[in-house]
Design brief:
The structure is a homodimer of 323-residue chains. Chain A has 323 residues and is α/β, with parallel strands linked by helices. Chain A has a single domain, classed as Aldolase class I (TIM Barrel, Alpha-Beta Barrel). Helix content of chain A is 41%, strand content 13%. The first copy, chain A, has a 9-stranded parallel beta sheet with strand order 2-1-11-10-9-6-5-4-3. A two-stranded antiparallel ribbon of chain A has the order 7-8. In chain A, strand 10, helix 10 and strand 11 form a beta-alpha-beta unit. Chain A is globular and about 50 Å long.
């Protein structure tokens, strides 16, 4: 049996190309309970680049006490920076929590960083032990110093739609926090539905609010979680509103820390299946990507939560696709 | 921790209300490897009705040799027909393969039937051992007799987007087969992506082709599979094209028979989460529905594949919602 990829159907309202910001190696692995050897992480990143991904978030320079899964960041980054010569245009951003983390990242060859802020007061307190305003101010010297060092910065804004403690989050509040991150010097703002509760109407509402605030859509990315199965419909809605940068995690790696049994990040394979079906280019070879996720799932000792990976790896013949 | 449901955001392009055609008890259970006792099936259907579903496909009167999982249809149907008095407007359609099946169904109190046809030649041959044209003619006396008996008929059309043997399926071919089913007397036509390969552009393309052929959208339903994670984005696209009847399976019951490890039907809970988030009424109590799916999963001895069921049942506090 050979499963054909769906025929390409183009829609002029959708972008011709989407850049996938692959977060599996950082956001995915930081939520894994098992410690993954540094060689496996380096091979994972190399295989993601070989599969055509050109933005591969590599690790986090957060203190090992908080995220022991990524305690090997200083050892890992130099193992993969050589990929930038091998694959033209490859970016390997790393998360940094503060100035100390930034210096460690720069010393190990980081050429792009990301900071992680919250759109809600409660999550800022719980995650960073600071008020939202204090947390944003903490990032000011980090982003300033990064930009001075010629290193691009991305701002993650979490809990943009709902918060486990505060419930639904208003768009105005998210826009205010997002404007602060952009004003600090972040080139790109990734809007995160950290607990996966959003539905398409809310996505449209938030993007329209950013538009009213004068933020060019080119500076925005979306980061959806599949906790309630909504990530891909939300992504489709975002694409219709001009978004062209989408965060996703190979194989759907990474659980939601607030609901033990919930699934986590949007799987890159599910995203690529939709984008290629819509005639949107990604540069990704879906077969190679699914094989990479299946390989890592074997190393982690459990099946990939991605629907597309399960279907492709379970099927007798893998279709070949580069879009 | 209490997870709030997302705030309701209305979009005038979307319908105010969607009727869910619940297929878990038939399409779901017919693909289960374990035999489920008839009392459990009857309780499942009763709980689905109690959760607010008003179209609950109950079973199939296909020959027990072909679908042993539903060999108890004659015993099951009389156990649940009383629910129609308890819940106003409740419909309990049953699948029938031929005139013999129809007579058995009518004798046991069926008030609505469905027939299952294919949009592709190869699947018609493999599933029914007939050409497409022969299969459609075979249904003519079935639908005619049902309508004469005052029993409504629905036509399922499978493989509307892709076929494991033929690859992508053209819209013209699907429209031709669909028109035949409607002309036979089917009140409603359910367009099925049996192998789950479709993406939103193809859904739009097929619905536009039916519109050009003069078929009122009120006579169409959609039936998506989550094999590649695409079911909900495809549903959203269909809603934007005027569809108001959506097939779904409680807890995502039912695998795809063509890819062993693939996931199957769109989970009703994932659908309801999106619809309620969009402010679309369904009449369904999501908490009661997720509890029902979790209960059945326990009886089947494996977790529900629905993302929303996993999230809701895993969370400490279940949100309450009736939309």
């Amino acid at each position: 049996m050979e499963l054909g990829l769906p025929a390409v159907v183009r829609d002029p309202a959708l972008p011709a190309r989407v850049r996938i910001h692959e977060v599996g190696a950082r956001d995915g692995l930081q939520n894994e309970s098992s410690l993954v050897p540094v060689e496996v992480k380096a091979e994972f990143i190399a295989r993601l680049a070989a599969a055509g991904l050109r933005t591969v978030e590599a690790t986090s320079f957060v203190h090992p006490k908080w995220v022991p899964q990524l305690a090997d960041a200083e050892e890992l980054l130099p193992r993969v920076t050589g990929l930038r010569e091998q694959y033209q245009g490859l970016r390997l951003p790393v998360l940094v929590p503060n100035e100390r983390g930034l210096e460690r990242a720069l010393a190990r060859g980081a050429d792009e960083i990301a900071v992680f802020a919250s759109a809600t007061e409660t999550f800022a307190q719980r995650n960073l032990n600071r008020s939202m305003a204090e947390a944003l101010e903490m990032f000011r010297p980090v982003v300033t110093r990064a930009v001075e060092a010629g290193v691009g910065a991305r701002g993650y804004l979490s809990m943009c739609f709902g918060d486990p403690w505060e419930g639904p989050v208003g768009a105005d509040q998210v826009v205010t926090a997002g404007l602060r991150l952009l004003e600090l010097g972040c080139a790109e703002l990734s809007l995160g539905d950290t607990i996966g509760v959003a539905t398409p109407g809310q996505v449209a509402g938030l993007l329209e609010a950013f538009d009213r605030a004068g933020v060019p859509v080119e500076r925005l990315a979306v980061h959806f979680h599949d906790t309630y199965g909504q990530a891909l419909s939300n992504t489709l809605t975002a694409l219709r509103h001009g978004i062209t940068v989408v965060d996703a995690s190979a194989g759907g790696l990474g659980g939601c820390p607030y609901a033990k049994s919930a699934t986590g990040n949007l799987a890159t394979e599910d995203l690529v299946w939709m984008l290629h079906g819509l005639g949107i280019e990604t540069g990704v070879d879906l077969t190679a990507l699914a094989a990479t996720s299946a390989w890592l799932a074997g190393r982690l000792g459990r099946p990939s939560p991605s629907r597309a990976v399960q279907a492709l790896v379970g099927a007798a013949t893998l279709p070949s696709s580069t879009g």
